[in-house]
Amino acid sequence: MTTFLDDINGRYATEERTIINLCLKNTGFSLADLAKELDTSIPKISRIVGELVDMGYLADLGKQESSAGRRPSIYGLNPAAGYFVGVDVRQDGLSIAVTDFPGRVVHFEHDVPYRLQNNEESIREMCATVKERLKKARIDTGKVRSYGVNLTGRVNHETGYSYSYFISEEKPIRNLLEEYLGKTVSVENDSHGMAYGEYMSGIADGASNILFLNVGWGLGMGMVLDGKLFYGKSGFSGEVGHFPLLDNHQICRCGKIGCLETGASGQALHRLVKERIESGQPSILADTCKKGKELSLNAILDAIQKEDVTAIECIEEVGATLGRAVAGLINIFNPDSVIIGGRLSVAERYLMPPLKIAVNKLSLNLVNNDTVIKASRLGKAAGAIGASLLAKSRMLNS
Fold first, then answer.
1. Claim to verify: residue 324 and residue 390 sit in the same structural domain
2. Which pLDDT score is estimated for 4?
3. 192: Cβ–Cβ under 8 A, 6 or more apart, which residues?
4. DSSP character for 307?
5. Which of 44, 79, 228, 304 has the fewest beta carbons closer than 10 A?
6. pTM of the model as a whole
7. Residue 22: CATH number of its domain
8. Are residues 372 and 272 in the same domain?
9. CB–CB of 316/339 below 8 Å?
10. Same domain, 257 and 352
11. How many domains does the chain have?
């Protein structure tokens, strides 16, 4: 399994890595621009860029627009240098994104049927499903440089272990994925992956400090601080869903009582809707509950889109509760942006107004004036795109 550093001959390793990283977030540079960025001579930069072009990492993107004088050539990442595949894994399905070397999405699909279980066979099945989908999409897997895989729960991206889907003490889940996919694999917590996707190609718009709240069945958070994903000591930062904020006597799935997740998540929305229907409040979902059928989160979100009053009232309550937490986070971090994503963000029309009202009411004015609160631009694609971009970044900087 080769990495970027395996391709480098050693003479200009530091400069080559710097140039590649400069190109990760910029369209391209002239030789003069790169010489200035690296504080070196144009002849030296010309030799380094020539080697990167020969290796296939960079390409001549054409002439720069200029109002006068000779137009210089612009160099940037070569689209033909390979693909990066991101897989966002949920308990009930997969999202798969394929990006080219510069980071453009060339393929995306959502809700690929799959059931995640805590065993090696499930991991093998997932890898087979991903390969099958890539083949169907006519993506040459021989040109895939690396894979990124997002998992819910606690993930240590450095050791490759998932502590929510813990299969073996001797073999990290990353090793299993690499064995079945045949390429290097980067594993990540899903909220961290989503945050990185928005930071690199979504709604962050150049901000260097963003908080991404992943409001799905549970509640997680990814943080980009000073332009870098923040992990904490063990890689488990962002467990905002288990902040003991509420006095609602609800038992969280972690075993504690009153976690934020019990009032601001998909499972909270599900509980609130069921309680109101059982108390006699009218809803288009009432028949489903009365007949003893399983009430899914997707059905509730569909009911919100159909303007079901009961479901709307419940999502607004979730938004207000989440807003209390966001107010506290803004006071602590003073971020450029707070981005709301995950499954519940599809109901942003009803989720966001009470959230923003709570923030305006409860946060410090001098602090929240600096923060923009937005719904995710990438939506359901954020996790898979983030995973693919992280796979690229880690391969190039391994």
1. no
2. 56
3. 150, 155, 157, 222, 229, 231, 238, 386
4. T
5. 228
6. 0.89
7. 1.10.10.10
8. yes
9. no
10. yes
11. 3
Tell me the two tokens of residue 173: 């889940």
Q: How far apart are CA 319 and CA 265, in angstroms?
A: 9
Q: Which of 350, 349, 352, 342 is nearest to 379 (CA)?
A: 342
**169 and 31 housed in the same domain:** no
Cα separation of 240 and 220, whole Å?
Answer: 6
Helix axes 382-396, 13-24, angle to 10 degrees: 160
- Residues 98 and 143 placed together within one structural domain of the fold: yes
pLDDT at residue 66, rounded to an integer: 58
356 and 388 fall within a common domain:
no
- Which two three-digit tokens encode residue 215? 């409001």
The residue segments making up the domain with residue 287 are 205-377
Read off the tokens for 311.
């479901």
Are 94 and 125 within one domain? yes
The residue ranges of DSSP E strands in 101-225, in sequence order, are: 105-112, 144-151, 155-156, 161-162, 184-189, 210-215, 219-225
Enter the DSSP assignment of 255: S
* CATH number, domain with residue 192: 3.30.420.40
Tokens, residue 391: 């796979």
Question: Which string of DSSP letters, residue by residue, matches 15-66?
Answer: HHHHHHHHHHSSS-B-HHHHHHHHTS-HHHHHHHHHHHHHHTSEEEEEEPP-
Distance CA(224)–CA(278), nearest Å, equals 42
Give residue 255's Cα distance to chain centre.
Answer: 27
* pLDDT, block means (10 residues), the chain with 398 residues: 57 81 82 92 93 90 68 88 95 94 93 90 95 96 95 91 79 93 96 94 81 96 94 90 93 92 97 95 91 88 96 98 97 95 95 97 88 93 96 85
- Domain final position from 25, 50, 80: 80
Q: How far apart are CA 344 and CA 331, in angstroms?
A: 24
- Quote the pLDDT of residue 201: 82
Q: What pLDDT score was predicted for residue 67?
A: 55
Residue 95 to residue 386: CA distance in whole angstroms: 11
